[in-house]
Amino acid sequence: MEGNQSWITEFILMGFQLSEDMELFLFVIFFLLYTFKLLANGVILGLICLDPRLHSPMYFLSHLAIIDISYASSNLPNLLANLVKHKKTISFVSCTMQMIFNLSFASIECLILLVMSYDRYVAISLLLQYTVIMTWRMCTFLAITSWACGFSLALVQVSLFLRLPFCGPQNVNRFFCETRSVLKVTCGEIWINEMFLFADGVFILVGPFSLMLVSYVSILWAILKIQSKEGHKKAFSTCSSHLCVVGFYFGIAMMVYLVPDNSQREEQQKILFLSYTLFNPLLNPLVYSLRNAQVKAAFHRVLQKKRTM
Question: pLDDT tens across 120-165, in order?
Fold first, then answer.
């Protein structure tokens, strides 16, 4: 096995078969999207750091911003480099690291979104007990547990991948080193890898998504008890936007990782995974942060402080 793996230096990321002009066009589009992701999430992190009033209520949003920046940065720079150079290769080491980061940050984001839904549930349904339940120690514990679980699951998956032999063309039918696609280019038994990948998907996707639905149903039930029509409207607007993001993120992830492989769905899978990587990190700062009243107020305070200096 070691002999088979020793000569592997790179994979070929097939993606779509495009002309050089189209690749340059996509480079511009993806570069602008990537820049906007970095700016939007960077603004959120900057506001949270600059305004002490955001440290506590925005604790999990800061983690979400870091995850979005890290997830996009683990994929897009290599894609942009390949588009502008009109090449499709990635080294074996880079591909392995990309798999680790993809799995890690995707898993951590699922768990952080679950924690955030629980945080909203406590804030709305158990308002008087919020400061007792969501202490700084509890928030730190939930965040550390999410990060530890995400990296642990990814390391198990990549460890199982590294034991496999390679003996043929290393053409990965994706833009990135997505785990299921890379497994297809090996020539060993991958049923253990697929079993663990499916189990991880159930644990990271189905479990948290089900619990989040329970949290938001409880939140909506609490909202119905609010007498103010303005309170109804504001709360429903917030919950509906959060549910849209959650549905988009978890729905695509489930189709990518839990639906059985089908050669006729290869092109659809590429588009799904590309949209999952490109657009979800854009939605999070727009929905969870930039629409938040506390974040808007902090942004105005920072601008006023700059003008007075």
Answer: 888 878 878 888 888 888 989 999 999 999 999 999 999 999 888 8
Query: Taking the model in full, what pTM does it have?
Result: 0.85
Q: Count other Cβ atoms within 10 Å, centred on residue 196.
A: 15
d(CA 71, CA 78): 13
Looking at residue 268, what DSSP letter applies? H
Average pLDDT over every residue of 58-85 = 85
pLDDT in tens, 269-292: 777 777 777 777 777 777 766 556
Is residue 201 pLDDT above 60, yes or no? yes
pLDDT tens track for 159-173 = 999 888 877 678 887
d(CA 154, CA 306) in angstroms, rounded, equals: 43
d(C-alpha 121, C-alpha 130), whole Å: 9
By the 8 A CB rule, do 185 and 169 touch?
yes
CA of 242: how far to CAs of 237, 247, 284, in Å? Answer: 9, 9, 9
Backbone phi, psi, residue 174, to 5°: -150, 170
Give the three-state DSSP class for 174.
coil
Tokens of residue 160, six digits: 């199982």
Contacts of 282 (CB under 8 A, 6+ apart): 33, 36, 37, 40
The β-bridge partners of 11 are 90
In single-letter form, the type of residue at position 281 comes to P
